[in-house]
Design a protein that fits this description.
The complex is a heterodimer of chains A (615) and B (373). Chain A has 615 residues and is an alpha+beta fold. Chain A is 36% helix and 21% strand. Chain A has 23 helices and 23 strands. In chain A, strands 2, 3, 4, 5, 10, 18 and 19 form a seven-stranded mixed β-sheet that branches. The longest helix of chain A is centred in the first third of the chain and has 36 residues. Chain A is elongated and about 105 Å long. With 373 residues, chain B is mostly helical. The longest helix of chain B has 33 residues. Chain B is globular and about 55 Å long. Classes of the chains: A alpha+beta (615), B mainly alpha (373).
Chain lengths: 615, 373
């Protein structure tokens, strides 16, 4: 026996435990008396009150869906608002025979299988006295036809409710995205109570990205209803709070000019303010009317959009990935100087093609007869491929991909929207893991002129151009400038974040490339000199052409004979005014053939509109 | 001869009880409660015989388990408590990684044949281990014992609260606390802990919790702020109970219940159905039956010959009381909504089995008293 054990006194301990047991018994009685007291209050004192509520009347909790926040462009132009639209709604509890009623309704209102399925799914999830929409957006004739017969349908209602509307139609659709009818899958991702009564949810783009801001807070009404379900009086109400308003960085006027500048071409253009990362225009062509999607798009309309060879539903600006072609040359040229692969004066003689040591293959320049003696300035101005083959060969793929990553190639910009893709800057590592193959020296050359596996999104290209114009300071681009918080209408800035900036080793290197880019537009032999006619400010730019299909070694690319959809993509990047950049633009025109003649004029119109007639 | 036979038949049942090591008082009270339960369940389920049959099967199964547990000698129970505890905690950790999600919380462990909640084991294992630990120590408990016991309780409680299963965490935590309380934790310790907790609360509130957690607690504290969620349950439950009046609307006649206004009416909110159909009178009788069970448990605890039995029987009876109080408090709108069933009446097998095994332990303690005495 231990010492402790000997100290144990069973008599004292038993008395202690018994005392505590007695105390517990006492508390048990007290607390259960409390419950009994509560029951006494509910069942005897307030019995009358609850009895009334239970017998002839019932209390119902109605959800009041909030109004969705509005979207404005940077100058306050309304991009998305809400308009009243008629809906056919049914309160399942008040309908004697639901199947019968649904069948009879079909005589007056045409609803689809889709509508019916959704209605049935929702009637399972919501309480039997809540009104559940069967069809949205009724036409005036439909409302009139049903209204005269409505007395025959107990529990069927026509209600006018606010519904999302895009007043400018197709304009800026790829920047905004759209809302659509909420479905059971969406409900799984949100707090279902907050969405009680809500019929729409952001499906794409800003509308989806900022769903939490735009939705608002649900309101609640406690009402007393009679046995038939009619509201007798409102007992208490907490009104819904409208969703927050978004103020975009997009300039609607600029956006429209960009859309018009494209005419019938497909492609994308993104314009960014390099000083703060605000996206001024984000266009993907062709555009389509998002209002079609709000209330459920018809079968025919959807198929027409989906099957169109121009793929209007595809958001090229964020999801389209294109080889950047020669527009990547200024970046790589800067890399060559910074990494001391080349000096400013070093020249390469261009004979129209380039050959690696030990390889018979000829890497061709776009200019068959060659450019002659080229230094970096001339190679950018005239877009000489041979110079860049040589630079790439000396720099090597490892240093190239390391340098280009600093300007954002190969990674998402982190824009505040949905559907953005990575682009791709190839590397040894990438090739090993994705294709299980070793890197060939020839691929370095192809990558060096912006072809091969190298891919960019238009947004990425614009953002990299903006970063270049600010000597390496890169922002995470933004579509929303500020959020107007409801109910107190305070503006909260949604500033772009600076991504870790690239520190130039020698600023003269940058100045050199920058001057070459000015010559692209303003020089006598610049590839974009067509746009300098009558220009009132200085532009730095670079043209590019991206091959859609490969040409065999001895074949010729003949623009006339190549089908339109196989023609090269035309690209152009630029920033202006060159010495104090306020706008950076990247244009991609699919199958546009020439960066200088097709893509550059689009950029010029946007820059003119932004810099000259800012009204 | 006749006389002998007579007295034999009178004591026959008692001897059978003794042979099975059962307590006749507790057993009859439990059976009455179970009968009450089946009746209410029949009404709450909308006169669904299949559900009542399924529940009755569970009751029989749980009773058999109770008899089995009652026949485990107390020495053995003390010995296995450490292993039961360790196994329980190990399974809680396993649930964290491999558990199945049900109703938004990760609680279930699938062992191939059976799927069960390890947290149920801890409802018994925690009071068992703390009672075993304290049984041989000098009472009232000192600081060291208090620390060790608190750690033994807190580990499983925190693991369960993480799942998240607030209701079970409360039950396991209070089971452990009651052992300590009965073992004579000094009042100044209890009071200073209480003061410390209330002083810490604002700090925890501010720094340890996420926004959404704060919101969840606010809704718990004031369900009326969430009338589309749990507040709806409370409002409808109060109408059901209140409209029952003195004698109730009668069995199968509760309009609120029958018209599907009460959510979870077969499980957590079954007391609302009872209150509506049997009124204040019926509810009071029901609560008295519960009180009798609790008092019988405390009586057995008080008359046990050794500390282990006193502490365990007392703590288990008081935990049973917590079930009752939290559930009735919740459906009458006095307490926040946490998932605690009405013991032995709510539909569902897991809590029923654990509770009955707990009563098996209490009965084993009662029999040990006799054999050791």
């Amino acid at each position: 026996m231990s010492k402790r054990e000997q100290l144990k006194d069973d008599f004292l301990e038993n008395r202690l435990i018994r005392r505590r047991l007695a105390l517990s018994a006492f508390f048990t009685v007290i607390l259960l008396s409390l419950v009994l007291g509560r029951l006494y209050v509910l069942q005897i004192i307030e019995h009358e009150h609850f009895s009334t509520l239970s017998d002839s009347n019932r209390i119902r909790i109605k959800a009041l869906p909030p109004t969705r926040g509005l979207i404005f462009d940077r100058h306050g132009v309304v991009m998305a608002n809400n308009l009243p639209a008629y809906r056919l709604e049914i309160v399942p509890e008040q309908v004697e025979n639901l199947d019968d009623t649904l069948l009879q309704l079909k005589q007056y209102i045409d609803y689809t299988e889709q509508d019916l399925k959704r209605f049935k799914q929702f009637s399972k999830r919501r309480r039997p006295f809540e009104s559940i929409p069967l069809r949205l957006n009724l036409k005036d004739e439909e409302v009139a036809r049903l209204a005269v017969n409505l007395h025959r349908f107990e529990g069927v209602e026509i209600n006018a409710r606010l519904t999302r509307n895009y007043p400018q139609g197709a304009h800026a659709v790829h920047a905004l995205g759209y809302v659509g009818r909420i479905d059971v899958k969406d409900l799984g991702k949100v707090n279902e109570n907050e969405y009680a009564g809500t019929t729409h949810i952001g499906k794409l783009g800003l509308e989806k990205f900022y769903e939490n801001e735009l939705h608002g807070a649900v309101g609640v009404q406690q009402v007393e209803v009679n046995a038939g379900g009619r509201t007798l009086r409102v007992l208490s109400e907490s009104p819904p709070v409208q969703g927050n308003n978004l103020h975009l960085t997009i300039d609607s006027r600029l956006q429209k000019i960009a859309e018009e500048a494209f005419a019938d071409y497909t492609g994308a253009v993104v314009a960014i303010d390099p000083s703060n990362g605000e996206i001024l225009a984000l266009v993907s062509m062709p555009i389509f009317d998002p209002n079609l999607f709000v209330n459920g798009i018809s079968f025919d309309n959807y198929h027409a959009l989906r099957d169109s060879i121009k793929r209007p539903l595809f958001n090229r600006a964020l999801s389209g990935q294109y080889p950047p072609g020669s527009t990547s040359k200024p970046f790589l040229g800067l890399g060559g100087l910074e990494e001391k692969v080349k000096t400013v004066d070093q020249k390469k003689y261009c004979i129209g093609y380039y050959k690696l040591p030990n390889e018979p293959r000829r890497y061709r320049d776009w200019k068959k007869q060659g450019h002659g003696r080229m230094d970096l300035h001339d190679a950018i101005t005239q877009s000489c491929d041979v110079y860049f083959y040589d630079l790439s060969h000396e720099m090597g793929i490892d240093r190239m991909s390391e340098f280009m990553a600093k300007f954002g190639f190969g990674t998402k910009t982190g824009v505040d929207s949905t559907g953005e893709r990575n682009g791709l800057y190839p590397s040894r590592e990438w090739k090993r893991s994705s294709e299980g193959m070793v890197w060939f020296p020839g691929e370095t050359l192809i990558t060096g002129i912006g072809q091969g596996a190298f891919l960019v999104t238009p947004l990425q290209l614009a953002n990299s151009t903006a970063a270049f114009s600010r000597k390496g300071v890169r922002y995470q681009p933004r579509l929303v400038k500020s959020i107007e918080k409801i109910p107190d209408y305070t503006m909260v800035k949604n500033a772009s974040k600076v991504v870790e900036p690239y520190q130039l080793k020698n600023e003269q290197n940058w100045v050199h490339v920058h001057n070459a880019m000015i010559s692209v537009v303003h020089g006598l032999r610049g590839t974009a000199r067509v746009i300098n006619k009558g220009i009132q400010y200085q532009v730095a730019g670079k043209t590019g052409t991206a091959q859609v299909f490969g040409i065999a070694q001895e074949e010729e690319y003949d623009e006339e004979t190549v089908a339109e959809k196989l023609r090269d993509h035309a690209l152009f990047i630029s920033y202006a005014p060159a010495h104090d950049p306020q706008i950076a633009v990247a244009v991609i025109v699919e199958n546009g053939s020439h960066g200088g003649s097709v893509a550059a004029p689009i950029a010029r119109r946007i820059m003119d509109a932004y810099l000259l007639d800012e009204s | 001869m006749n006389q002998v036979l007579d007295s034999a038949s009178i004591s026959y049942s008692r001897r059978a009880m003794d042979a099975l090591r059962l307590d006749p008082v507790l057993l009859s009270l439990l059976i009455v409660l179970a009968l009450f339960g089946s009746m209410v369940l029949y009404s709450a389920s909308g006169a669904d015989q299949a559900i009542v049959i399924r529940q009755s099967t569970r009751i029989v199964f749980a009773l058999l388990l109770m008899i089995a547990v009652a026949n485990i000698p107390l020495r053995m129970i003390r010995k296995i408590s450490i292993w039961l505890y360790l196994a329980g905690v190990a399974m809680l950790v396993a649930v964290m990684f491999y558990g199945e999600v049900g109703k938004g919380a990760q609680r279930w462990l699938n062992l191939g044949i059976v799927r069960f909640q390890p947290s149920e084991i801890l409802k018994l294992a925690v009071p068992m281990i703390v009672a075993t630990y304290l049984a041989n120590r000098v009472l009232p408990v000192g600081l060291k014992e208090l620390m060790v016991s608190s750690i033994l309780v807190l580990i499983p409680v925190l693991l369960i609260a993480r799942q998240p299963d607030l209701g079970t965490a409360i039950l396991v935590g209070s089971a452990g606390f009651f052992v300590l309380f009965l073992a004579g934790v000094r009042w100044r310790v209890i009071i200073s802990l209480g003061v410390l907790m209330s002083a810490m609360a604002p700090l925890l509130w501010k720094f340890a919790l996420h926004d959404y957690q704060r919101k969840r607690i606010l809704t718990l504290l004031d369900p009326e702020t969430d009338p589309l969620g749990s507040g709806y349950h409370i409002i409808q439950s109060k109408i059901a109970i209140g409209s029952g009046g003195v004698y109730g609307k009668g069995w199968l006649n509760g309009t609120q219940s029958q018209l599907d206004f009460i959510p979870e009416r077969s499980t957590d909110f079954i007391f609302s159905v009872f209150g509506e159909e049997f009124g204040f009178f019926g509810s009071a009788v029901l609560i008295l039956i519960y009180l009798a069970i609790i008092f019988r448990g405390l009586y057995i605890a008080a008359h046990s010959k050794e500390n282990f039995g006193r502490l365990l029987a007392g703590a288990l009876s008081l935990t049973f009381f917590v079930y009752l109080f939290v559930n009735t408090g919740m459906v009458t709108g006095m307490l926040p909504v946490v998932g605690v069933p009405l013991p032995l009446i709510s539909y569902g097998g897991t809590s029923m089995v654990t509770l009955m095994m707990g009563f098996g332990l209490i009965m084993s303690i009662r029999s040990a008293k006799r054999f050791l005495g």
